[in-house]
Specification:
It is a single chain. This protein is of the alpha+beta class. Helices cover 27% and strands 33% of the residues. The chain has a single domain, classed as Hypothetical protein (Archaeosine Trna-guanine Transglycosylase, Chain: A, domain 4). Strands 1, 2, 3, 4, 5, 6 and 7 form a seven-stranded mixed β-sheet that branches. A hairpin with an 8-residue loop joins β3 and β4. The longest helix is centred in the first third of the chain and has 15 residues. 15% of the residues are buried. The model has no long low-confidence stretch (mean pLDDT 87).
Length: 157
């Protein structure tokens, strides 16, 4: 086998390992929201969520069911707020100094405007978001941010 043929074969194997050329079926995810954020999701104004890094990573094109509990968590029914399609997933790093977003699997990071991310995530300000993450998850926080677009314009009953 020639060196060129070997390189071509290796490139094809790398592409297959990344999933290129393979039809990937859409995955379906369920994400629960605290009452504070549920109204924003249902109204269609909250189009992102920051979560700890999951074992099974969502990808653009996957569907996501956005829900909340009707009463006590795990002791009540779930109410579907919206059905949506994931449009982007990024790694996120939140610390006292700010927020950095990264391409999944590495790549260069960038710092978006903290205030804009905080507002889009349902907080009044960056300091409020920082304190919420400090109390809820601890800082520094390393997770993912999921962006979606709503499948239907109207909330589900």
């Amino acid at each position: 086998m020639s060196v060129e043929a070997l390189r071509e074969n290796q490139a094809q194997l790398r592409a297959l390992a990344r999933g290129a050329g393979c039809a990937r079926s859409r995955a379906h995810f369920v994400r629960m929201f605290k009452p504070r954020f549920a109204a924003l999701v249902e109204a269609g104004t909250k189009l992102q969520t920051v979560r700890p890094k999951p074992k099974r990573m969502p990808q653009p094109g996957d569907t996501i069911s956005l829900r909340c509990w009707t009463g006590l968590p795990y002791r009540s029914k779930q109410r579907v707020l919206r059905e949506a399609e994931i449009r982007d997933v990024r790694e996120i790093y939140i610390c006292d100094d700010g927020i950095c977003l990264y391409e999944i699997g590495g790549g260069a990071g960038w710092a978006p405007g903290e205030h804009g991310i905080a507002k889009a995530d349902g907080f009044d300000s960056w300091p409020e978001m920082r304190e919420w993450f400090r109390e809820t998850h601890g800082l520094p926080f390393h997770g993912i941010i999921i962006f979606w677009h709503n499948v239907k314009d109207e909330p589900r009953p």
